[in-house]
Specification:
There is one protein chain. By secondary structure, the protein is α/β, with parallel strands linked by helices. The chain has one domain: Collagenase (Catalytic Domain) (3-Layer(aba) Sandwich). It has ten helices and eight strands. Strands 1, 2, 3, 4, 7 and 8 form a six-stranded mixed beta sheet that branches. The protein has a two-stranded antiparallel ribbon with strand order 5-6. α1 packs across α3, α2 crosses α3 and α5 crosses α7. The longest helix has 17 residues. The N and C termini lie far apart (36 Å).
């Protein structure tokens, strides 16, 4: 299995930065981190967690009372049960930790924290990790040496998740833009929980059959559709990225996703046991 990198192009050569893309995690990726143990830290109380969520987590504004209480519980559980590691000089303040943990908790509000059992640690960077070097270009037979910035990473098995704080905060505050690096990377971990990063989450029976039909219809096709605009183009990089990007859209822009791709929305609602398009008011950009 391969780690999945979500990256954005930061080269000054391009007129506009392309969609994040992914590639295998191997020895060619100069993603060097200086590890250090998280210092002694006491988790904030419920009132402090709630205040940070209210300020920074836009999706939370759409949750009803029961789901909001579940969000507080899951956020606290993730803060206490996972190992949090700072790199590149970032300070892991309550705001940083709670904001990331709360976004990670959103997909599992109808479950306990078991879906994240393979997430042992979360590494937090202040911003994207820049790397360069010659690699395959966007067209077969071409090469590029553009600088890229890694904003998120989900390693296989019990490997860590890496999150860039600046991207996480920007996404968290403005869900109507349709992207969320924290939800994206944790969706990869859900996908990987059956041993493969293949875009097929751990479903069984009829639910698995329905998801595979949706994946074939939406991803494994040769022609585009008008409805494709609801997903970032990065979704069509691979089945694994399709699942992660669709999960972002499901929680960030549920009303738009349900209108554009109702079968995909229904399949995700069955997986996550949530119906945000029905139960919530659309977030403001």
């Amino acid at each position: 299995m391969r780690g999945v990198l979500s990256v954005v192009n930061v080269s000054s050569v391009s007129a506009a930065a392309p969609e994040p893309r992914s590639r295998p995690l191997d020895d060619t990726v100069p993603f060097i981190m200086q590890w250090r143990r998280t210092p002694s830290w006491s988790p904030p109380d419920t009132a402090r967690i709630d205040a940070i969520i209210s300020a920074n987590v836009g999706i939370a504004a759409r949750l009803d009372r029961a789901l909001r209480e579940r969000l507080l519980e899951h956020t606290a559980a993730l803060l206490q049960s996972k190992r949090w590691e700072p790199v590149a000089g970032i300070e892991l303040t309550d705001e940083v930790l709670v904001t990331i943990a709360a976004n990670a908790a959103i997909p599992i509000l109808s479950f306990d924290t078991w879906p994240y059992r393979q997430v042992r640690s979360i590494i937090v960077r202040p911003s994207a990790s820049l790397s360069s070097g010659t690699r395959a270009g966007p067209v077969a037979g071409t090469y590029t040496d553009e600088v890229i910035g890694t904003i998120g990473l989900a390693s296989p098995h019990s490997g860590p998740i890496v999150i860039s704080w600046d991207a996480a905060l920007a996404d968290s505050r403005r869900p109507a833009l349709g992207s969320n690096v924290v939800i994206h990377e944790f969706a990869h971990k859900i996908d990987m929980s059956d041993g493969y990063a293949d875009g097929v989450p751990p479903l069984r029976g009829a639910a698995l059959d329905r998801w595979q039909r949706v994946l074939r219809d939406e991803f494994h096709r040769t022609e585009g559709r008008d409805s494709d605009h609801v997903l970032r183009p990065y979704a069509w990089e691979s089945p694994a990225e399709f699942f992660a990007v669709a999960t972002e859209a499901f929680f960030c822009i549920p009303v738009r996703l349900a209108a554009a791709k109702p079968h995909l929305y229904d399949a995700l609602a069955e997986l996550y046991r949530q119906d945000p398009a029905r139960d919530s008011v659309p977030a403001q950009p």
